[in-house]
Amino acid sequence: MNRLKHFMGITGMVILILGCKESKSITTEIVRPNVLILLTDQWRAQAAGYSGDPNVNTPHLDSLAAISVNFKNAVSGMPVCSPFRASLLTGQRPLTHGVFMNDVQLDTSAVTMAEIYGKRGYDTGYIGKWHLDGHGRLQNVEPGPRRQGFNYWKANECTHNYNHSVYYDNKDPERKLWDGYDTFEQTEEAIDYIKGRQEAMNPFLMVVSYGTPHAPYHTAPEDYRKRFDPEKIVLRKNVPDSMRVQVKKDLAGYYAHIAALDDMIGKVMYNLRATGQLENTIIVFTADHGDLLGSHGAYKKQQPYNESIRVPMLFYLPKSLGIAEGERQALMNSEDILPTLLSLSDIAIPETMEGVDYRPYLEGEVGLGEETLISCVQPFGQWNRVQHGGKEYRGLVTLQYTYVRDLNGPWLLFDNIADPYQMNNLVGNPDYATLRKDLDKRLSIRLIETEDEFLTGMDYVEKWGYPVDDTETVPYTQ
Question: Is 160 a catalytic residue?
Fold first, then answer.
């Protein structure tokens, strides 16, 4: 029986021989879905046709959204690159896995997505940007524990030089370059992988991690850049007049990257259909965080505003799961993705995970996802304290409000329904004092539940032993 269980775990298939006068065999397949994660970098939730952006057409993404579950209020709980990626892989919050800054290494003993799926017989693969190794951005992430359970590997630690993009090919330690715009080449690599899995007996877990539409904004192929006239870009209402010219220019480039990515999503979907694998594949389309792009007078991420924390979150689910497509209100967070995927794959969720399993919610359970946490443990880099006024914060996001506390006390309170551009901070408004106190109490309860003492960022830096420079940022080498 133990050998039979092992066989089931590896192949997903059991053959029963029934003893009778004439031996007959019955083959019963336990169909486990493939899992394909399309991860983009710095794609804010607003920037798609299906979410109402007036500046860009995303027909392929819109088509995917139409047949997917759309977590329209999804949040990147710590909206910056490495913390999100570590939460995606572990189902844990940043103060647990320890990756609360960029350019540090995720503990190689972590219980990760690839290790869990791999033990259930999945082929595991990773293509594109990693940013969880901390050994230099252009250096090889050596095969073994540092790849956190991923076997197939055509990836790099971190680069945003999209037309001269480094990667490493499986066990080959020689540095290689993608031939041209890496978004295109990484997609072709993923398609080749998918085609190669067509006859495989076991399912796959594949993460395709794009560097775009992250800055630099003006490096998409020329034919995409020509589609966007800066003069015609419609700005969000919270972009200051003094920044309008520059933001329009940068948004035109940002949307060019998005248009290119949209075409790649179309190619991936076409090939999944053509190889007959679409109906047995869970697809997640998301981003590690957004981009302020001039909103609130700022660029990039880390800050607690919607342009920074809100991300696209589409789950395409095989019909066999019996879950209807359409919009969902739940505030899915970064650490919730993996436990939800495991549940949808009928794989037990390890006790190490802290995220919410949203499968019951998708099947009709109410009361889940009505609020979630956001945080900045230690401001660094593009929002460091010394040069850019960054600061530690903890926040509670509900279906209507965003409430944020810094180390000095209440900082921000927005009614996101009445004030979708978050231009009216209600934190000092006496008419909202009762609401603020209630949200503050709920935030305190959540911090206790998650064992978050809300110390200074440098306390956590010292605890984890991270080296920082004069801007309190972990320095990195190429």
Answer: no
